[in-house]
Amino acid sequence: MTRILVIDDDRGILRLIERTLQKEGYDVTTVEDPEKLEMDHLNWYQLILLDVMMPGIDGFTLCEKIRDKVDCPILFVTAKSEEKDLMIGLGVGGDDYIIKPFGIGELRARVAAHLRRELREKKHLVTIGEVEISLQAKQIFCKGQRIFLTKSEYAICEYLALNRGQVFSKEQIYEHVFGYDGEADSSAITEHIKNIRAKFQKSEVSPVETVWGIGYRWK
């Protein structure tokens, strides 16, 4: 479960953010007093929401203090909308701003967008059951053994695995892998899937499932 840390001295806003994000399925930790923040646990979180105007230590100072301890996005929640304040926040390591007063929809959308970006850009190793996918090396391993795939086969596997459980038609897969200018038509996906399954079969694993009449998904 995705873990989010919210730091704000306003108890009402803290509860509002907590309830909103919990409804989205996130594991939310709230901190009302920033000086009581447990620094050793910061790397638990995938995203931090941080108020700017707080007693004792302001959000900009706190961000600068913790930025080298965490690699996750830090979003400021603040009423300070002047350009100079935005520049200060970005300069000390903030990733984005949510300006008070904010709407619930905006909060959900901003958080989701940054978490999606984290998945795309920073999650270099994906493990699903007995399959490991190295996004950086563009390689797939099953039970510790590398599965030797063509570039197209790898691209199909990566696309399906990163969207595990979601069903895609042959046309959708083709468009993602080859683009509109690909030389083959979407029926080529059927052959690629067949080859992928044959290569995984050597490890007695079959990660790609056919959803009859619709397309394919990663189990």
UniProtKB/TrEMBL annotation:
* Pfam family for this entry, one: Trans_reg_C
UniProt cross-references to PROSITE patterns, sorted A to Z: OMPR_PHOB (PS51755), RESPONSE_REGULATORY (PS50110)
Q: Tell me where in this chain the PTM 4-aspartylphosphate is found.
A: D51
OmpR/PhoB-type domain location is 123-219
Q: Keywords of this protein's UniProt record, alphabetized?
A: DNA-binding, Phosphoprotein, Transcription, Transcription regulation
Q: Which residues cross the membrane?
A: none
Q: What domain of life?
A: Bacteria
Q: Which PANTHER family match?
A: REGULATOR OF RPOS, RESPONSE REGULATOR SAER
- UniProt protein name: Stage 0 sporulation protein A homolog
